[in-house]
Amino acid sequence: MARNLQQHILDVASELFYSQGIKTTGVDAIVKAAGTTKMSLYKYFPSKDDLVVAHLNKSRAKLQGIIEAELAQATDDPQRKLLAVFDVFERLQASPAFRGCPFINASAEFAEIGSPVQQAAAEFSEGFRRLLATLAAEAGVRDPDNLSKHLSMLIAGALVREQMQRGSAPMRAAREAAEILIGHACAQARAAEPA
Amino acid sequence: MARNLQQHILDVASELFYSQGIKTTGVDAIVKAAGTTKMSLYKYFPSKDDLVVAHLNKSRAKLQGIIEAELAQATDDPQRKLLAVFDVFERLQASPAFRGCPFINASAEFAEIGSPVQQAAAEFSEGFRRLLATLAAEAGVRDPDNLSKHLSMLIAGALVREQMQRGSAPMRAAREAAEILIGHACAQARAAEPA
DNA sequence: TTTTCAGAACAGACCGGTCAGTCTGTTGCA
DNA sequence: TGCAACAGACTGACCGGTCTGTTCTGAAAA
Questions:
Q1: Is the CB of residue B26 inside 7 Å of nucleic acid strand D?
Q2: Where are the transmembrane segments (chains A, B) (predicted)?
């Protein structure tokens, strides 16, 4: 296993944290599922909290990869790229393993303000919004920051809605709303600076 | 205390559940904070799960009351009423005690599908959307169900965003997006059925 | 090629604390 | 007298985390 063991433990822990919840998942369960021992786990992750933070970092990296891959194969039309983000999440939601957003869930489970978990969630939230703002700026809308807030809230809302009401497929509705908002923002930009 | 004791225990438990998280809050902590005993708590609530469900029911009733009060004193303009819902949440978010939506948080903490907690969260989510749909229908929009989904997702998204990034005041941005979407839906209705 | 040895991983008992929930007994009020 | 509430010890399970000791492996040394 060598250096792989650390990754293996993290993979197993991440899956359990996501599917069952973080507080619900005990260290013993992780150790058992990973087929390893507590000593090995605590060698690589000094505490459960460290493991949780690693889980969030892993989730962020994974999601970033998925989104970048989708954007890379999307058309160059910036508006399409914005909508492609919704398509990514729609696909993720369709999986039976879907259990909401890891960061929203972690934020709900760890109430203590300023905790590393809350901090990681905040950083992801802001980073994701900035990604949308970049795409919105490329689309040439009037106020990219504002539109990015609108769109990120639509996505977050759709994620929690599907989590609470499985099968309601809200990401498609969120995408429709996004189209309206993007169209509006583009129209505003055109009106403000006519050729 | 008499019959009041049950209510008192629920009040204290509800506050702790909301502020600290449900799994984090032990029965002993509730008993101590309420100044009562375990025997009394378990007399009125046979299990902690029952107490959690009661907490959610209480939260639903409380929120319904707040929204109804706001709608009652809002103008008769149906569009204003829709926006007044956003004002309610903006006020709630401004409180330092704000810690997100009790139902979203509970849904994140209790992963088991079909559990009473998940069920209560689903019912609330759908009930809230229906309220928005009713208001949207009164506003005479083309597809009230669709608009209600959009607006409920904006609100949910703003709630989790404020939870993860305190002080980012996203409900105002959500309200702006709502105005655009409402305007769009009304314009569609006018276009579909011209005088 | 065989021996040796260090580090990595396994195995599992163990710690104090907390969990939800139960039990016995006492106090106080109507 | 009877019921509601208090008081608090108690159970068994589980929590995160530590500790001792064994087994495995792979590379250096002979």
A1: no
A2: none
Comparing CB atoms, the residue among A23, A104, A156 nearest residue B23 is A23
Domain containing residue B14: 1-46
List of residues 6+ apart from B176 with CB closer than 8 A? A146, A150
pLDDT tens readout for residues B97-147: 999 999 999 999 999 999 999 999 999 999 999 999 999 999 999 999 999
List pLDDT tens digits, range A81-115.
999 999 999 999 999 999 999 999 999 999 999 99
Same domain (yes/no): B176, B112: yes
What is the C-alpha to C-alpha distance for residues B104 and A105, in angstroms, rounded to an integer? 9
- Same domain assignment for residues B29 and B69: no
Contact, A1 CB vs strand C, < 7 Å: yes
In contact, A156 and A149? CB cutoff 8 Å: no
pLDDT over 60 at A1, yes or no:
no
- pLDDT score of B3: 53
CA B93, CA A72: separation in Å to the nearest integer?
38
B174/A contact by beta carbon, under 8 A: yes
Q: What was the pLDDT predicted at B194?
A: 59
Do B24 and A150 lie within an 8 Å CB cutoff? no
B34 with B113, same domain?
Answer: no
Query: Do A94 and A178 fall within a single domain?
Result: yes
Residues in chain B: 195
Domain of A180, CATH number, reads 1.10.357.10
Q: Could you tell me if A38 and A62 lie in one domain?
A: no
In angstroms, the CA A117 to CA B22 distance is 17
| Whether residue B7 sits in one domain with residue B66 | no
Give me the residues of chain B with pLDDT under 70, please: 1-3, 193-195
As a whole number of angstroms, the distance between CA A85 and CA B45 comes to: 45
Domain count, chain A: 2
CA distance A95 to B96: 37
Cβ distance B124 to B56 under 8 Å?
yes
The closest of B97, B121, B98 to B109, measured between CA atoms, is B121
Based on the domain organization, do B1 and B42 belong to the same domain? yes
Together in a domain, B42 and B57:
no
CA dihedral sign of residues B169, B175, B176, B178: positive
